[in-house]
């Protein structure tokens, strides 16, 4: 070890988190932060439109996405890397319908699943079993998130949007979150 090395340089030499892995994890932080902002914006639109249960569902979902982001944040720093606070801009603020919101959520969650799978695949490939194991929580979470989005969309098919349909869908959306946590 060179005499003139600073303490931080010594510590980073001893870490097992590869730079490629750190980069992928930081990209995932950004994606989770985007999910949180996206769902908060959707919650606001639903609230403004009078879809009270959908709004509550989405406010809660936005908080959960922030928690997903923070878990990775702590993981990188604890593994000797540097978590980067993402810059999040360009979040859509207006939507055409309640149904469109849930279609967008499903589309978005499928993208997130692909991104999580890419990290799992990478960490296995480089034999980073700590990251591989850490990411298993996200694998399970994504399955749940996609199921929730699909169930929400099914409500539109089953109930229909005519008459008191949208009101009923909003009521059912209020129960959806609890049903998957059972
Ligand atoms: Fe973080 O699970 Fe959705 O995006």
TrEMBL record:
Question: At the top level of its lineage, which domain of life is listed?
Answer: Bacteria
Where does it sit, as one GO cellular component term?
Answer: cytoplasm
Give me the residues that bind Fe cation 1, please.
32, 65, 68, 109
Location within or outside the cell? Cytoplasm
Q: Which one GO biological process term can you cite for this protein?
A: iron ion transport
- List, in alphabetical order, the Gene Ontology terms for molecular function in this entry: ferric iron binding; ferrous iron binding; identical protein binding; oxidoreductase activity
Instruction: Keywords in alphabetical order, please.
Output: Cytoplasm, Iron, Iron storage, Metal-binding, Oxidoreductase
UniProt keyword Iron present: yes
Q: Which enzyme class, named as a word?
A: oxidoreductase
Task: Tell me its EC number(s), please.
Answer: 1.16.3.2
Give the catalysed reaction(s), semicolon-separated. 4 Fe(2+) + O2 + 6 H2O = 4 iron(III) oxide-hydroxide + 12 H(+)
- Binding of Fe cation 2 occurs at 142
The keyword Nuclease is assigned to this record: no
Q: Where is the Ferritin-like diiron domain?
A: 15-160
Biological function: May alleviate iron toxicity in the presence of oxygen.
Q: Which family does it belong to?
A: Belongs to the ferritin family. Prokaryotic subfamily.
Q: What is this protein called?
A: Ferritin
């Amino acid at each position: 070890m060179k005499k003139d090395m600073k303490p931080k340089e010594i510590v980073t030499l001893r870490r097992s988190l590869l730079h490629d892995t750190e980069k992928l994890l930081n990209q995932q932080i950004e994606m989770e932060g985007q999910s949180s902002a996206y769902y908060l914006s959707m919650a606001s639109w639903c609230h403004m439109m009078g879809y009270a249960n959908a709004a509550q569902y989405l406010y809660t979902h936005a908080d959960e996405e922030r928690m997903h982001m923070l878990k990775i944040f702590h993981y990188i720093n604890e593994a000797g890397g540097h978590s980067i606070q993402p810059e999040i801009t360009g979040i859509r603020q207006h939507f055409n319908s309640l149904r469109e919101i849930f279609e967008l959520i499903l589309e978005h969650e499928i993208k997130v699943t692909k991104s999580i799978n890419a990290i799992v695949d990478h960490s296995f490939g480089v034999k980073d079993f700590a990251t591989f194991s850490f990411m298993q929580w996200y694998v399970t979470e994504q399955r749940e998130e996609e199921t929730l989005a699909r169930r929400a969309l099914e409500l539109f098919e089953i109930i229909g949007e005519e008459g008191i349909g949208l009101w009923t869908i909003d009521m059912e959306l209020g129960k959806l979150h609890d049903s998957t946590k059972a």
